[in-house]
Amino acid sequence: MEMAERNARQAIEARALDSGRIGQRLEALREALGLAEVPQRIECFDISHTMGEATVASCVVCEAGEMKRAEYRRYNTAGITAGDDFAAMRQVLERRYGKLAAGEGRCPDLILIDGGKGQVSAARAVLADLGLEAINMVGVAKGEGRKAGLETLVFPDGREGLVLGVESAALHLVVEIRDEAHRFAISGHRARRAKARIGSRLDDIAGVGPARRRNLLATFGGLDGVRAATVEDLCRVEGISRRLAEHIHRALR
């Protein structure tokens, strides 16, 4: 009983300490950005792609200092020039906050944009078009050499960028949220890129449609498995004749 009581007391003290630390970071952020109130709900956006391929945007949500993973969202962009991060940012913000302008969803207290003046300008234009320019927003531009702690906060009203420094509790919070948005975006991008590449290799083979492609990938566990299969192995897949199996075998080599 004494051990249980001691553990419970330590758990309560640890929770209180953590809660106090979160409160300090949020208050530091409010002061650094000159906000009227502590931002309780923060939404952060990032764009990820490889040379314009399989562009994916992410939105992560931090509420009261805690990441709300159930509210994370990814957005596949379409109809834009490959590699145009500004267009990608405009598209994802239009999709995210178009609903808010129509009276749906929750309004964030602060929007973080992973990027510099160009991305922030694009984001500001979207919010203005939607009548949401009153929402606080700031960009997070990478520092020299992309070193942590050298980030510059970029404001949409054109005022001089703010470098808080490595010791800033406000910057620690901003970077933590920014890094989570980056992680979530890049994991979605990699999955989309891999799916596109697998699909394109099989789709380019005459006679292999969506159904046969799914059967092949399911049977062999992916494109590498299909590539390693013999003609006899391929013949055993539903919908694959010997002639088609030979064709697939040649095409993947």
Low-confidence stretches: none
Share of β-strand residues:
15-25%
Number of beta strands: 7
Mean pLDDT: 89
Please characterize this protein's 3D structure.
A hairpin with a 2-residue loop joins strand 2 (53-63) and strand 3 (66-67). The protein has helices at residues 2-33, 85-101, 117-129, 169-203, 210-220, 223-228, 231-235, 242-251, and strands at 41-50, 53-63, 66-67, 73-76, 110-114, 136-141, 152-154. The chain is an alpha/beta fold and 253 residues long. The protein is extended, with a radius of gyration of 24 Å. The termini are far apart. 30% of the residues are buried. The model has no long low-confidence stretch (mean pLDDT 89). Strands 1, 2, 3, 4, 5, 6 and 7 form a seven-stranded mixed β-sheet that branches.
Notable traits:
seven-stranded mixed beta sheet; alpha/beta; 253 residues; 16% strand; extended; single chain; 51% helix
Short description:
The chain is α/β, with parallel strands linked by helices and 253 residues long. The chain is built from eight helices and seven strands, in the order H-E-E-E-E-H-E-H-E-E-H-H-H-H-H.
Question: What's the layout of helices and strands?
Answer:
Elements: H1 2-33, E1 41-50, E2 53-63, E3 66-67, E4 73-76, H2 85-101, E5 110-114, H3 117-129, E6 136-141, E7 152-154, H4 169-203, H5 210-220, H6 223-228, H7 231-235, H8 242-251
Parallel strand pairs: 1-5, 5-6
Antiparallel strand pairs: 1-2, 2-3, 2-4, 6-7
